[in-house]
Every structure is written in C-alpha cells, then in structure tokens.
Write a structure and sequence with these properties.
This protein is mainly α. The chain is built from 8 helices and no strands. Helix content is 75%, strand content 0%.
C-alpha cells in the first residue's frame, strides 16, 4: 500500500512539474547555453585572426602604431575575461563581456578604415584574405548573436508567463540578460541631414 501511494505521489509530482513548465525550462536553458557557446566560438575565431592581421599590417612601415596598439589591447581585454555558462545568469558579468567585445569590434573597424589610406596594404593579397575572413567572421558573430537573442527571448517569456513564473520562482530560474546596444540613446536620435553647400 505504501509503495502504491508513493508511486501515485511521484506520478502526481511528475505531472505537476511537466505541466508547470519545468521541462521547458530545462530545454530552453540548454538551448541558451548552446547558442551562447556558438557566440563564444565565433568571438574566439575573430580573436584568433587578430594577431595575423596585426602582423600583416606591421609590415607597412609608416602604419599608425596607435591604431595597432588599440587593437592589440582590445583583443587582450576581450580574451582575458573568464566566461562560463554562469555568465548568462549574471547581468553585470554579461555586460562587461559585451563591452569588451564591443571595444574589440570598434578597434578592428578603425583599423580597417585606416588601412584604406595605405595602397601597399590594399594591394597585399594576404591582408585582403585576412580582411575577407574577418568580415565573414563578423557575419557569423551576428548570426550567432541573433540565435542567442532568440533563445533568451523564448526562455525569458517562459520565465515571466503564468503559471510558469511560479515554477521559475520555486526553482530560482531568473530572467537571463541579453545583448544590448551600447549607445542606444545616441542611435535613437534621427541623423541630421543638411543639403547646404559648404
């Protein structure tokens, strides 16, 4: 009789947990971790390209050293951060990671703009190949980030929806941080356009 009652109780608990989103939380949590791993993979791919780009650009004798130094420093900062699946549940750590990656993106963008002023670099096939690889990697980063944003959105909707939010509170499933735009206030302003001749 005790085993029957215990079995019935376990079945009821299992039905309650599956009906209140527990299994969905598990599935979506794994999806966000998987999507996050792909984001990290693409960021690492980009970081691995930087030394080759810097070495190629250093061959240009008059190239601006300050620009190269900023790229190297930004890469060092981005790759020195300890990132783990727990970062997904820590908004402050996530923001620091995002900021470091943003600095590297900005430094690389400035580097590529400055290289336009150096005809020897523009003619260097090795540099052009690295540039194409970097652009492809930036596209892969965008795709990976978009996938991560979508999985976090699905997870956060589940965590905030009733009755799943009760399960979230019971098991401490908090809302996960997502990528944000660094200069959101600045980009929300419409650009000023002037057609006056100067």
């Amino acid at each position: 009789m005790k085993y029957r009652l215990l079995s019935l109780l376990l079945v009821c608990v299992a039905l309650t947990l599956s009906g209140c989103g527990y299994n969905q939380f598990q599935a979506l949590d794994e999806q966000t971790k998987s999507a996050w791993a792909e984001v990290l993979n693409q960021y690492q791919r980009r970081a691995d390209l930087v030394p080759n780009i810097v070495a190629t650009v250093k061959g240009e004798a008059q190239f601006e050293q300050d620009t190269l130094t900023k790229v190297v420093e930004a890469r060092a900062k981005a790759t020195s951060m300890q990132v783990s699946p727990e970062t997904l549940n820590n908004p402050e750590a996530f923001k620091k990671f995002q900021s470091a990656q943003g600095e590297l993106s900005g430094a690389l963008s400035r580097l590529l703009v400055v290289t336009e002023n150096y005809p020897n670099l523009k003619a260097n096939q090795g540099f052009q190949d690295l540039r194409v690889q970097l652009e492809g990697t930036e596209n892969r980063i965008t795709v990976a980030r978009n996938r991560y944003i979508k999985t976090v959105q699905d997870y956060n909707i589940l965590a905030r929806s009733f009755p799943n939010n009760l399960t979230a509170m019971m098991f401490s499933y908090s809302v996960k941080p997502n990528f944000t735009v660094e200069n959101e206030a600045q980009i929300s302003k419409p650009p000023s356009v002037s057609f006056e001749k100067k």
